[in-house]
Amino acid sequence: MSTSHISPALAVAIGLISFQVYAQAPGAPNPALPPAPPPMLAPASPGLAPTPVAQTPVAQGEVKRMLINPYGEVDGLRLVDGTIIKFPPHMAEALSAAVKPGQSVRVLGLAEARGVVKADAIINLATSQTLIEQPPSLANGRPLPPHLRAQNLQPQSVEGRVDAVMTGPRGEANGVILSNGSIIRFPPESLRLSVQQGAPFAASGLGTRNTYGTSLEAISMGTSLSALQPLYDAVR
């Protein structure tokens, strides 16, 4: 993976952690995560303020599940301890190639909310492979606009019980993961149901079903498929 867009601070942090991974004896337990020091400021580009970069891992553990968005793209991980790791969907192919469920990872990034981390880098502790967030590349052409991408979505309906809540950058609930692994995304202001763990939850909408599971953008939600309520006014 190219490092041409990596800040010096992040590169140093990844180098130190990669050294710890290589130095760790086979079969030895992973060391406890140290307390995070104040963030280092990466050199700023002209006209821009310095950007905080995490120097130490903010999450570590075994991968339980790959998370996908309604388009079927892998855009994160869920660890066995429940931590949700976010990663940009344009790197879906690289992430699914670098990390598999059952493997342990160490994550550098910033905590957005309790149990939710926006990753800058993900280190596979089994292979020592490091995946670093990169900006989208135009080498293979521009991505399809949303209205064309949406043509690939299919009607989906799911129901089950809430296993985890997904949140936005300000901690607002914008999705849930059901106990069967299905992922439901919705606008934060549309939530009128309980998202407490174990609460019944159902939705229908447009999304994707693939080897990683089912993910959809909700059009209607309720406590069961027989009690769905529309989220949007009908088009007249």
From TrEMBL:
<feature type="region of interest" description="Disordered">
    <location>
        <begin position="33"/>
        <end position="54"/>
    </location>
</feature>
<protein>
    <recommendedName>
        <fullName>Secreted protein</fullName>
    </recommendedName>
</protein>
<feature type="signal peptide">
    <location>
        <begin position="1"/>
        <end position="23"/>
    </location>
</feature>
<keyword id="KW-0732">Signal</keyword>
